[in-house]
Amino acid sequence: ISTIPQESHAAFFTTVIIPAIVGGIATGTAVGTVSGVR
């Protein structure tokens, strides 16, 4: 049984997942740009 409140868990999830998604998009865009330049 998790002792972490739902709110804290949601905040943690958001803090970890959102940057991962944004970072993934940024990385994909950067790679696509470099590939396009080459």
3D structure, described in words:
This protein is 84% helix and 0% strand. The chain has one helix at 6-37. The chain is rod-shaped, with a radius of gyration of 16 Å. The chain starts with 5 loop residues before the first helix and ends with a helix.
Helices and strands, with pairings:
Blueprint: H1 6-37
Give the biggest sheet: none
**Overall average pLDDT:** 86
- How much of the residues is beta strand, in percent? under 5%
Rg from alpha-carbon coordinates: 16 Å
Q: Globular, elongated, flat, extended or rod-shaped: what is the shape?
A: rod-shaped
Q: What gap, in angstroms, lies between the N and C termini?
A: 52 Å
Weakly predicted, low-confidence segments: none
Number of strands: 0
Content-based structural category: mainly alpha
Q: How many helical stretches?
A: 1
Name the helix and strand elements from N-terminus to C-terminus, one letter apiece: H
The helix content is over 70%
Question: Outline of this structure?
Answer:
With 38 residues, the protein is an all-alpha fold. It is 84% helix and 0% strand.
What attributes does this structure have?
38 residues; 84% helix; rod-shaped; mainly alpha
